[in-house]
Amino acid sequence: MRTSTREVLLGRAILIFVMLITLIPFVTLFVTALHAPGTYPNGLSLPEEFHWDNFVIAFQSANMAKMLTSSVLIELGVVPISLLIATLAGFALGHLEVPFRRTLFVVFVLGLTLPFEGIIVPLYYQVRDYGFLNTQWAIILPLIGLFMPFAVMWMRAHFVNMPQDLTEAAKVDGASTWQLFWRVHVPLSRPAIASLAILLFLWTWNQFLLAIVLVDDPTKRTMAGALGAFQGQWGTDIPLLCAGSLLILTPVLIVFLVFQRQFVAALLQGAVKG
Asked: Among residues of the chain, what percentage have pLDDT more than 70?
């Protein structure tokens, strides 16, 4: 059934409306950040003078250079390791006949129901006993474990839909299980792996609770966790607080805009059949 012009225009109008609603908080933050420090802006009112130096002041006052370095180190510790483990486990559970795979599947599904808030107290004592408190490892290691249920389920859902003909053809050609995984399935799984990497990056970057509870030094937290210390210092200075929030949000927006095609491709993979 062909879509009429009126339906197309209505769909575009709805999308534009939703986009405008989504942009309003960012526009409000940006306009507020341009007001004079120490003032209390009223809504979306434009300042008489644009204070672009608020971003510089916020960056220097919050010591964001060290926060950025810490966030990058945490990302490098969480994302690659999580991707490797999740891809291997997802391939095994979704494409291989491994023992107890149904039981393991149920265990990972139950892991999806485990909230961070429900385990933060025992996790604190466990991290303390290992001597990792107030270090980046206190964030990296728990996040790898907490991300595993979703990451494994994400990759399993991809490998389950992979055609068995490819596997049988590769085995006829003498491919081992590792060659089947690395040379056949991983190249075909790039959209799923890329989209999972984006999600893990965003979740790690925005991790707040673990960073606040397990790390006292703001310069060793994630950027979102460091925002708590920045808010405590500049909580009454609304323009500087908005400027700092935008600086923290900017890397996330850049990553999503750059890799949005891979993310959408992974979400649509398997939904449309040729």
From this structure: 90
